[in-house]
């Protein structure tokens, strides 16, 4: 789900799909030739999960999205519970096979996890942390 965009620009609510057609066949939202969802790899992405029994993870995810929304920073929310490949992608980008959400990535550059995010907010270096500056 994409946050910080108007309803017309927002992505469907499943799997981080974006509302633009595939470049090879111009179909939406799944490319029949690749048989996979079309996802944007550019821009800020927050890896999260909608299925967790951990109150800590739920709280951390909420705080990250609340802060980003409050600062009007556009991001894409990627729900790793939709597909194990998304979880593996998150862990590969984080460089940690046991990484848990929330994890923050800008393009193909790993920004950090919740603790680093909160530290950047407290030190007023969020733009640099998110690699937006």
Please, could you describe this protein's structure?
By secondary structure, the protein is of the alpha+beta class. It has a domain at 44-130: Glutaredoxin. Helices cover 30% and strands 19% of the residues. It contains 4 helices and 7 strands; from the N terminus they run E-E-E-E-H-E-H-E-E-H-H. It has helices at residues 55-70, 84-94, 114-122, 126-129, and strands spanning 2-3, 30-31, 36-37, 44-48, 75-79, 103-106, 109-113. The strands form 2 sheets. The chain has a 5-stranded mixed sheet, with helices on both faces. Strands 2-3 form a two-stranded antiparallel sheet. A hairpin with a 4-residue loop joins strand 2 and strand 3 (36-37). The radius of gyration is 15 Å and the shape is globular.
Key features of this structure:
4 helices, Glutaredoxin, 30% helix, five-stranded mixed beta sheet, 133 residues
Q: Any chance you could write out the topology, listing elements then pairs?
A:
Blueprint: E1 2-3, E2 30-31, E3 36-37, E4 44-48, H1 55-70, E5 75-79, H2 84-94, E6 103-106, E7 109-113, H3 114-122, H4 126-129
Parallel strand pairs: 4-5
Antiparallel strand pairs: 1-5, 2-3, 4-6, 6-7
Silhouette: globular
The DSSP helix count reads 4
SS-derived structural category: alpha+beta
Spans of 5+ residues with little confidence (pLDDT < 50)?
A: 5-40
CATH superfamily of the domain at 44-130: Glutaredoxin
What's the helix-strand series? EEEEHEHEEHH
Query: Which strand-content bin applies to the residues?
Result: 15-25%
CATH architecture of the domain at 44-130: 3-Layer(aba) Sandwich
The CATH topology of the domain at 44-130: Glutaredoxin
Please give the radius of gyration in angstroms: 15 Å
Number of strands: 7
- Proportion of helical residues: 25-40%
Question: Can you identify the CATH class of the domain at 44-130?
Answer: Alpha Beta
Strand count, sense and barrel status of the largest sheet are: 5 strands, mixed
Terminal CA distance reads 24 Å
Average pLDDT confidence is: 80
Strand order of the largest sheet: 1-5-4-6-7
Main location: membrane
Keywords: Acetylation, Cell membrane, Cell projection, Cytoplasm, Glycoprotein, Membrane, Nucleus
Pfam family, one: SH3BGR
Organism: Delphinapterus leucas
């Amino acid at each position: 789900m994409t946050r910080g965009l108007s309803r017309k620009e927002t992505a469907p609510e499943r799997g981080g799909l974006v509302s633009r057609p595939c470049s090879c066949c111009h179909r939406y939202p799944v490319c029949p030739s690749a048989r996979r969802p079309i996802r944007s790899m550019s821009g800020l992405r927050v890896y999260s999960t909608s299925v967790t029994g951990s109150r800590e993870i739920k709280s951390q995810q909420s705080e990250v999205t609340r802060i980003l929304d409050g600062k009007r920073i556009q991001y894409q929310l990627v729900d790793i519970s939709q597909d194990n490949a998304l979880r593996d992608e998150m862990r590969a980008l984080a460089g940690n096979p046991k990484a848990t959400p929330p994890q923050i990535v800008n393009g193909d550059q790993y920004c950090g996890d919740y603790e680093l995010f909160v530290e950047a907010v407290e030190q007023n270096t969020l733009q640099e942390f998110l690699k937006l500056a």
